[in-house]
Design a protein that fits this description.
Number of strands: 7
Structural class: alpha/beta
Helix content: 40-55%
Number of helices: 12
Strand order of the largest sheet: 4-5-6-1-7
Order of helices and strands: HHEHEEEHHEHEHHEHHHH
Distance between the termini: 49 Å
Length: about 300
């Protein structure tokens, strides 16, 4: 019984490790530095240097910005809360009043949902200044597109433009690729405030550009070190990495979902490495419905399609 309990503890530790792992690969480092520049330049220049970040679902946008916000934790002082980086999810449906109220609530206003919009705005501006906010991060910014009419919510974008100008606080807006840019294009005055525009794209695999393969190789290798389990050596490394890339489209979220499930299976089976059978089952359980056009690459014998030259 004691041995079983120790084994369960070990398994849980491994699972916790894979769920908490964060791979700070080069593109994330670049984006982290760009966010930091916007925050610092706003402080020095005396006017808001705003930034937009978009990318497909699973690209890692939310993970990146939450990690960034966590580096500037909220702290309480005798004079009130200090919130250097204020992160929040854009409410859906988004209206001027819900936006203002949600922001007030998370800033600590006990009457966040009470009052007319003029009063809410006045309190919001005061609180952003009182809390010494240096950067506001609005996640799910695509909620400014009405899901029923597919129109950009002009009143909300106008309100945001005024809020940025009146507070002098830079905003970072984050959302689905194409939709963030569409919202900004619909409001030229708001667009002008967002000089920094970035996109977080999946990994690519281009044999004629070996650095693309090397980037994915380093990313996966870092995951292996972090979780304490290696991919099987039963296939040439490049071929196996290509199969992993193919099975996930190079999307970070897909890679992590596949490997998280594979680690759980490996722990249940007491397998020391992530072998082909484990990866095949993980693909079947976690990727096959999400990517229905894909064959299970971990069941296919070595072919030209999955070989190093692919």
């Amino acid at each position: 019984l004691r041995a079983a309990m120790m084994n369960d503890t070990k398994n849980q530790s491994a699972l916790n490790q894979i769920h908490s792992v964060f791979i700070f690969y080069p593109r994330l480092k670049e984006l982290h530095e760009e966010i930091c520049r916007c925050q610092q330049l706003s402080r020095v220049a005396g006017e808001p240097q705003c930034m937009a970040l978009e990318g497909m679902t699973g690209a890692g946008k939310t993970t990146l910005i939450r990690r960034y916000a966590a580096e500037f934790p909220r702290r309480e002082t005798r004079y009130g809360s200090v919130i250097p980086v204020f992160y929040l999810e854009t409410p859906s449906p988004a209206t001027v009043k819900t936006m203002a109220s949600v922001m007030l609530e998370q800033l600590g206003d006990p009457a966040a949902y009470i009052g007319e919009i003029g009063s809410l705005n006045s309190r919001l501006i005061s609180l952003l200044k009182a809390c010494k906010v240096e950067l506001v991060i609005l996640d799910d910014f695509h909620h400014l597109i009405d899901t029923e009419t597919d129109k950009v919510l002009a009143k909300v974008s106008d309100w945001l433009k005024v809020l940025i100008k009146e507070t002098g606080v830079p905003f970072m807006v984050v959302g689905i690729e194409g939709k963030v840019e569409r919202i900004l294009r619909a409001n030229p005055q708001l667009s002008r405030l967002f000089a920094a525009r970035e996109t977080l794209v999946p990994f690519v695999w281009q044999p004629e550009q070996q650095d693309t393969i090397q980037n994915f190789h380093v990313f996966v290798g870092t995951i292996e070190k972090s979780i304490g389990k290696n991919l099987t050596q039963s296939l040439p490394r490049t071929e196996l990495l290509y199969r992993l890339f193919y099975s996930t489209n190079g999307v970070v979220g897909n890679v992590m979902n596949l490997l998280r499930y594979a680690v759980m299976l490996a722990e249940e089976r007491s397998v020391t490495s992530l072998d082909l059978d484990t990866l095949a089952l993980a693909f079947e359980k976690r990727m096959s419905k999400h990517l229905p056009d894909k064959q299970n690459p971990f069941l296919v014998a070595a072919t030209e399609r999955f070989g190093p030259s692919a």
